[in-house]
Amino acid sequence: xxxxAHPIARTGNALPxxxxxxxxxxxxxxxxxxxxxxxxxxxxxxxxxxxxxVPPEQTRQKHFRLDAQGRQIEVxxxxxxxxxxxxxxxxxxxxxxxxxxxxxxxxxxMALLRTYASEEDMRxxxxxxxxxxxxxxxxxxKYRARHADILRTQEKRAAEMERQGQAVAAQVLKxxxxxxxxxxDYEDKIRVLEDKKRIIEDxxxxxxxxxxxxxxxxxxxxxxxxxxxxAADDDSGGLSAVAxxxxxICLKAxxxxxxxxxxxxxxxxxxxxxRLVYTSTPLSDQDxxxxxxxxxxxxxxxxxxxxxxxxxSLGRELCAGPKARDIRAGFRSSVxxxxxxxx
Length: 343
What we know:
With 343 residues, the chain is of the alpha+beta class. It has helices spanning 17-34, 82-115, 119-163, 170-221, 247-264, 313-319, 322-339; strands spanning 38-42, 48-51, 63-66, 72-76, 228-230, 241-244, 269-272, 276-279, 288-296, 301-310. It is 56% helix and 15% strand. Strands 5, 6, 7, 8, 9 and 10 form a 6-stranded antiparallel β-sheet that branches. It has a 4-stranded antiparallel β-sheet with strand order 2-1-3-4. A hairpin with a 3-residue loop joins strand 7 and strand 8. Helix 3 packs antiparallel against helix 4 (170-221) and helix 5 runs antiparallel to helix 7 (322-339). It is elongated, with a radius of gyration of 36 Å.
């Protein structure tokens, strides 16, 4: 062995010096090549450009960075006007209010799922409440029947006195009045219990429907759910929101907005309340989910639409693309056209 020689010189797999140098150069060069970026930007005439750099005069405008497959991976914002900053602040507030409504509904849903393990558990619980209610009604009806008998006896006494030409005794008149009052009181209590029974049955029906929907959503979301991203503000100068100042107008705007959401969403309805419409988390890169919220304010309310896509590169691209812009742009005009005028 030659003193000072590297052990690699003895191996059968040793690389020639030139080949080793080329391999090292390639290893160093590849990361730099992979970092080369492509940008997309739009000039003042609306023409779309692609290049490996953005002209200095365009850097103050919004532009995009693309990956090797041409998919959008980053939005680079330009200088923002006061109007844009104000719109962003409003968007953050509306999203925060909407998130609060979603959280409230999720808490109610979790309470329902914690309370009942199955539909059979719900039916048993309903049956227990109905049995208790019916038992209470039966007792009250027995008391009412007993006092009805007493009332008939007192009325017969009064009739007998009148046939004999006597004035009806004061105590008899008072007894009749007391029994009629007691019977009316029992009838009121029976009516209250029967109303509560109907409320229990209606609530059970709604809870059962919601329980089934939640179980179905659990099964659905277990296949391909990656989370969500929001569609970015499109710099159009207006949010996908409609303001209303009276209950009648707000109800009409809400109905029109809900109809619009159900037409445009790609995912099934997951939450549907008086103040929130929320379609299921998108499982496909091509699916767009929508959220509609009715948000209270000072002197007026806001009906706000938001757009959600799958948390993936294709999902982010969908939320930044023409489909999201068209849904956002069409929302306000669709609602206002249905109302006939801007509130």
